[in-house]
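Batch job 17 of 40 flagged for manual review because the log was empty.
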Amino acid sequence: MNPFDGPRMRRPRVKSRRRWLPVIGVTAAIAALATVSEAFRRDMAEARANTRGRSQVVDSPWGPIEYAEVGAGPPVLFIHGSGGGFDQGLDFSAPLAREGMRIIAPSRFGYLRSAMPEGATVEMQADALDWLMRRLGIERAVIVGGSAGALSATQLALRHPERCRGLALVVPALHAPDRRPGANAAPDPGTQRIINAVLGSDLLFWAGIRAAPDFMTRMVLATDPEVVKTASPRERQRARAAMFNILPVTARRQGLLMDSATAGAPPPWPVERITCPTLVVGARGDLYETDKAAVDVARRIPGARLVMYPDGGHLWIGHNAKLWRTVEAFVKERDPA
């Protein structure tokens, strides 16, 4: 037997395997892409289903206004925060509905099926909410505004005080002398540009949630991801749901842009003129610095009550049950019946 027969016979097999490597790589890439595509399709279908068939649209002088209504009892107008819509309003206010309150949850300008009127302002949004209340036959209600929604709630109390049985401002994105204009977690303009791009694409936003949840928690929810990681399973799930429920982000982009222009650096308003009973809730560790706004506005509104949690960030992680019990008690004090 020739000692070189063996090696000569093995060489073709090595070359054959090498020829198959690119094919195997391409096949694996296609399989991975198909898996990601299916996950994206599934999550987007779930996100769209979350808004389907739960709201109504009425024509107004400002264009279509979307709203949802659940429950019975004392009326509560719940004004959602940035990245929301009527669905966020319903989700956040669910503890109040379970306690026998009538929740009216509109989508603000540019969110979901609500129009973005030309030259829209927060003052116009407040007038539109006043119009909606009259359309629904609601003479007075407790107004709850969260985050960027606190701007519309505050203007409603200033411009239409007869509508406000009480005002509850939760992590309010209002002016404060020591709140940095545009306060957020972005360390530099480049990171902010990345965030702006992500907020303009369902695919990029979804990929960010899936691939970089800590980054998105910090940048979008303005909450330290470590606070979420050490929270209870229920609170971790609440944070996750708050992020996923921003999808489809493209259906909320116009509203997000308006919030960026108004809630990032709101002007000082004469909140000293607010006459209705007021509750202000803040949480330390909020990367939007709304805790500073909460302290300032509670100091300036006559008789306002301030509740400040020592931690929890913009999503008040670890304090959700306490927060809604506090708001529930506030509503019932305004309407004991």
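Reviewer: the log was empty due to a logging misconfiguration, but the result itself is present. Strands lie at 56-60, 63-70, 75-79, 102-106, 141-146, 164-170, 278-283, 305-309. Unflagging and moving on to job 18.
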